[in-house]
Amino acid sequence: QKEVEQNSGPLSVPEGAIASLNCTYSDRGSQSFFWYRQYSGKSPELIMSIYSNGDKEDGRFTAQLNKASQYVSLLIRDSQPSDSATYLCAVRAGGTSYGKLTFGQGTILTVHP
Amino acid sequence: GAVVSQHPSRVICKSGTSVKIECRSLDFQATTMFWYRQFPKQSLMLMATSNEGSKATYEQGVEKDKFLINHASLTLSTLTVTSAHPEDSSFYICSATSRGWDTDTQYFGPGTRLTVL
């Protein structure tokens, strides 16, 4: 079983719709959760971090965390073509040193006009 | 804030040569720097974790004698790919966590694309 799992997609949504990206993790002791966006040929850029159960909103982005279900999601409202990218879920397990992250394989999102 | 740079952005070299990649935190002191490798259409694979002034910790399967990491200061880490071969061609990305604030978040450099002929 992979430590961090994402649906690789591709996920295709129309412009203006809500894109929903999901991630599950295996280590119940995980402490910190991150969503990164990666455009083709570029390095990842941080979108959101979340540490507590519930929702965290930042502009058009909402991260949701449910530690009991070992599930973290990212919602993108009013999706734009510029949101088309690969979205990486990253998890820092409890007890790991130096902030080591485990990444999922990424979900490819395509927003079509 | 939290800007990480890498140099060079792209390098092409002949098989058997060594290549050095620099990673710098420009506006913060990095507690820890990480080196990743990413092959096409795959996710990031952590190669090693380095802390200033100490030896790097390599992930299982990563040859420490081939991928030399030096973390000489709180703002600079280097990765040297020794005797590079075509199978080492990849996208190498560093990241850094800050010292003192938000110590949990990794900020990524722009990456270095290595092509070994």
Question: Keyphrases for this structure?
Answer:
heterodimer; A: 113 residues; 11 strands; 0% helix; B: 117 residues; mainly beta; 7-stranded mixed β-sheet; 4-stranded antiparallel β-sheet
Description of the molecule:
The complex is a heterodimer of chains A (113) and B (117). Chain A has no helices and 11 strands. Chain A is mainly β. In chain A, the strands form 2 sheets. In chain A, strands 2, 4, 5, 9, 10 and 11 form a 6-stranded mixed beta sheet that branches. The mean pLDDT of chain A is 91. With 117 residues, chain B is mainly beta. Chain B is 0% helix and 53% strand. In chain B, the strands form 2 sheets. In chain B, strands 2, 4, 5, 6, 9, 10 and 11 form a 7-stranded mixed beta sheet that branches. A 4-stranded antiparallel beta sheet of chain B has the order 1-3-8-7, with no helix packed on it. The radius of gyration of chain B is 13 Å and the shape is globular. Chain B starts with a strand and ends with a strand.
Overall geometry of chain B comes to globular
Low-confidence spans of chain A: none
Secondary structure: helix percent of chain B: under 10%
Distance between the termini of chain A: 37 Å
What is the mean predicted local confidence, pLDDT of chain B?
91
The average pLDDT of chain A is: 91
* Main sheet specs of chain A: 6 strands, mixed
Write the layout of secondary structure elements.
The complex is a heterodimer of chains A (113) and B (117).
Chain A: E1 4-6, E2 11-14, E3 19-25, E4 32-38, E5 45-50, E6 54-58, E7 61-66, E8 71-76, E9 85-92, E10 102-103, E11 107-112
Parallel strand pairs in A: 2-11
Antiparallel strand pairs in A: 1-3, 3-8, 4-5, 4-9, 6-7, 7-8, 9-10, 9-11
Chain B: E1 4-7, E2 10-13, E3 19-25, E4 30-38, E5 45-51, E6 57-58, E7 67-73, E8 76-81, E9 90-98, E10 107-108, E11 112-116
Parallel strand pairs in B: 2-11
Antiparallel strand pairs in B: 1-3, 3-8, 4-5, 4-9, 5-6, 7-8, 9-10, 9-11
